[in-house]
Amino acid sequence: VSEPPITVSRALELYWGLTADRVREKSPDQLRRWQNPRKKAVVNFETAVPECKGKPIAEISGDDMLSFREWWLEKMDREGLSPNSANKDLIHLGDVLKTVNRMKRLGLVLPLSEALAPVFSEVDQGKDTFSRRAGRPQYRGAVHPLGYDQHGRAA
Question: Quick check: pTM over 0.85?
Answer without folding.
Answer: no
